[in-house]
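Escalation from tier 1.

The customer reports that the assembly of four entities below gives different structure tokens on two consecutive runs. Tier 1 could not reproduce it. I'm attaching the input and our single run for tier 2 to review.
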Amino acid sequence: MAAKFKYNEDILELSNFARVMSNPVRAYIMKKLSDMNTCCYGCDIVKELRIAPSTVSQHLKELKYAGLIQGVTEGPFIKYCINSENWKEAGYLFREFFGELPVKKEDICDIKSVENNNDI
Amino acid sequence: MAAKFKYNEDILELSNFARVMSNPVRAYIMKKLSDMNTCCYGCDIVKELRIAPSTVSQHLKELKYAGLIQGVTEGPFIKYCINSENWKEAGYLFREFFGELPVKKEDICDIKSVENNNDI
DNA sequence: TATTTATTTCGTAATTTTGCGAAATAACGA
DNA sequence: TCGTTATTTCGCAAAATTACGAAATAAATA
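Tier 1 run:
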């Protein structure tokens, strides 16, 4: 029978990052950490999302395993921060995947010149 | 007991797109369609990835349901093309999620390219 | 008409994901 | 020391995902 197809490494990496972000809890955590570029404790997430500590712990573990966050022990707490390096890496991967997007209005340098636009 | 947390709509939308792209077959198909901005038939995917037709059909259905592709009947074939509108939308969602990344050279706002730009 | 090709639907089995409670660990403060 | 708080690990059950084969549909063609 035919050999199994070998996916491009980028596709596998991207789909794995996508898998990690496919859970709302994990997406929420990453959004929180990246948005305000701040850190948080597991107990913050427990309070905010009102889910079991063990569930949060599991998701944080997965994010850590994926290299997207890193934890620093602070007494009985563990302060989790984003791993900027890998976060950027994931960002580039997705950006490349979706391709260069036409600029949005608010991103355009000069609004006037938008009126004659030839891009597809 | 505490009411269930209500996620931001963007988070839910993003994690759902992420779920869709978390499967290598689906990521492969989208990459193929978006990369060369071309179309394909289900049977192409069957041949390329060497997986069962029913499996491919299922994945195409999911992509269609997510609004990322659209099919046009062509005799016994169905030609699938990308749904640019929604693909762009997903792209923006991810771009916003990952935040503005340090500009790469080719992304730098260049008056010339903006001058001929029709896209909204 | 019979055959071939592309596709879909359906049912199924295997695997993965998810969320939780219970129990254990660790650090802090009264 | 004892109780509180934060966290993790473990086991479990429910749900979702995945891939497949068999059967059915539909169009093209010999």
